[in-house]
Specification:
alpha/beta, seven-stranded mixed beta sheet, 11 strands, globular, binds thiamine diphosphate, binds magnesium ion
Length: about 350
């Protein structure tokens, strides 16, 4: 756990949450730039017929990265249970552009699942992230199981569980939250609410305004914050993580985010989403928002910004070239890891 510095500082008229430094902010911003560059590239490769399926994280990045930085600062140990839209989280935890590109192009050397599809499904214990299933919400029980194990072992190992608004209506989520609250487990439920489950708008899958309203009924605190504002995300996540660390049990943190692109590259959102709505959502760009605020605050110069973007492009170009040239895995490996780890 990094040492949180307790002195609160102001940047561009905004109070920094305690513990966040300018270096953190630049590091987080650079990670967001890289994640966006990878995301745009894999979408483009899909359009060229080189990547089979893409679920974009564009619009969700601040929710994922603000949370990650809160975990790093405030949890002695943590583990992330991610879902398919969590590219920025993976990149934040050190999955390289090359590894991501190997996954999307299904090439040999991909470290998480040996290039099995969907991309970025599998476990990376060294990165403290796993995304074992594409079955919506199936991992929420795993996260609660992790938190239970850490409590039984007297460890402080926070389980961070990420899922969408649609997943929030799955049976496993209700059971998991109820069990976690009864047992006061060190788990935080992070809901990335983009108001759609594929084509289904949120008003058709729940009769209340906010997912966070449910928290009270389970017996845990619930809060909704602007998930495109990295500082708001960090603040809310830090509070929930600290509660888990102190033995205060689970929390639900809901992020109000935007899904810029169709559900996946197989989807056509023009059939159910008004263009004006999508364009309005793009005005809440977490990357642009962070960039403008850091520039205004004097933390990020134009030169530094340009250098970070050049570096990200270099990494993504190199990764694309590498992945395109890499061979496909040997078909004889197909059944490896199916029943038991090697
Ligand atoms: C149990 C189950 N039901 C349906 C699906 C098909 N499906 C895949 S993603 C998805 C929508 C999930 O929406 P949400 O949880 O809001 O996440 P988002 O994609 O919006 O980030 C559905 C219905 C599935 N994978 N698993
Ligand atoms: Mg959704």
């Amino acid at each position: 756990m990094a040492q949180a510095n307790s002195k609160q500082q102001s940047r561009g008229g905004i109070q920094l949450p305690p513990g966040l430094t300018d270096e953190d902010l630049l590091d987080l911003y650079g990670t967001m730039v890289l994640s966006r560059a990878i995301d745009e590239r894999v979408w483009m490769l899909n359009r060229q017929g080189k990547a089979a399926l893409v679920a974009s994280a564009q619009g969700h990045e601040a929710a994922q990265l603000g949370t990650l930085w809160a975990l790093r600062k405030h949890a002695p140990e943590f583990f992330c249970f991610a879902y398919y839209r969590d590219l920025a989280l993976w990149v934040g935890q050190g999955l390289s552009a090359r590894d991501v590109l190997l996954g999307y192009t299904a090439k040999e050397g991909e470290p998480i699942s040996g290039a099995r599809q969907f991309p970025m499904h599998g476990a990376a214990m060294r990165l403290k992230v796993m995304n074992l299933s594409n079955v919506v919400a199936a991992h929420v029980t795993h996260a609660v199981g992790w938190a239970l194990a850490s409590k039984l072992r007297n460890q402080v190992n926070v389980a961070a569980c990420f899922f969408g608004d649609g997943a929030a209506s799955q049976g496993e989520v209700h059971e998991s939250m109820n069990f976690a609250a009864v047992q006061r487990l060190p788990v935080v439920f992070f809901v990335e609410n983009n108001r759609y489950a594929i084509s289904l708008p949120i008003r058709k899958q729940m009769a209340i305004e906010r997912v966070a309203q449910r928290a009270q009924a389970y017996g845990m605190p619930g809060v909704t914050v602007d998930g495109t504002d990295v500082l708001a995300v960090y603040g809310a996540a830090a509070e929930a993580v600290q509660r888990a660390v102190k033995g205060g049990g689970p929390s639900l943190v809901e992020f109000d985010v935007e899904r810029y692109l169709p559900h996946t590259s197989d989807d056509d959102d023009s059939r159910y989403r008004d263009r004006a709505e999508v364009e309005a959502g793009r005005l809440r760009d977490p990357l642009k928002r962070l960039q403008e605020w850091l520039s205004r605050s004097g933390v990020l110069t134009d030169e530094h910004d340009a250098a970070l973007r050049r570096q990200a492009k270099r990494e993504v170009d190199e990764a694309t070239e590498y992945a395109e040239a890499a061979p496909y895995p040997d078909a004889g490996d197909l059944l490896e890891h199916v029943h038991a780890p090697r």
